[in-house]
Amino acid sequence: DVQLQASGGGLVQPGGSLRLSCAASGFRFSSFAMSWLRQAPGKGVEWISDIMNDDKTAYADSVKGRFTISRDNAKIMVTLQMNNLILADTAVYFCYADHLGDDFWGRGTQVTVSS
User: Which of 39, 69, 81, 108 could connect to 94 by a Cys-Cys bridge, CB 3.0–4.6 Å?
Assistant: First the structure.
């Protein structure tokens, strides 16, 4: 079975940091582009970042310079280091895998930025 399990969310003050992880299993992880998306309360799903199978990365303008995506094919994991968090980063964060039309969603992890 394909599984994508995000973890690492929590409550953090503005300016703080969190590191999200997404553990994958059940598919050929190294071939897949991996992404992080989020959904804030009352809003649609927003793409945050992705990392290709060649380690090329891309970021939404809203997080560029604050978030860093990385992947470890040996550990079958993708991470999102989030620094200098702001209130607008409050959302449920999801990881997503995509390769040639095959795509998988993981269960989200809640990130709450609040003073």
Answer: 108
Q: Which two tokens stand for residue 2?
A: 């394909």
The angle subtended at Cα 64 by Cα 68 and Cα 71, nearest 5°, is: 20
Instruction: Check whether 101 has a pLDDT greater than 90.
Output: no
Q: Which long-range contacts (CB under 8 A, 24 or more apart) does 48-54 make?
A: 48/80, 48/93, 49/80, 51/78, 53/99
Query: How far apart are the C-alpha atoms of 21 and 56, rounded to whole Å?
Result: 18
Inter-residue contact 36 to 91 (CB < 8 Å) = no
Q: How many CB atoms lie within 10 A of CB 1?
A: 5
Write the DSSP symbol of residue 3.
E
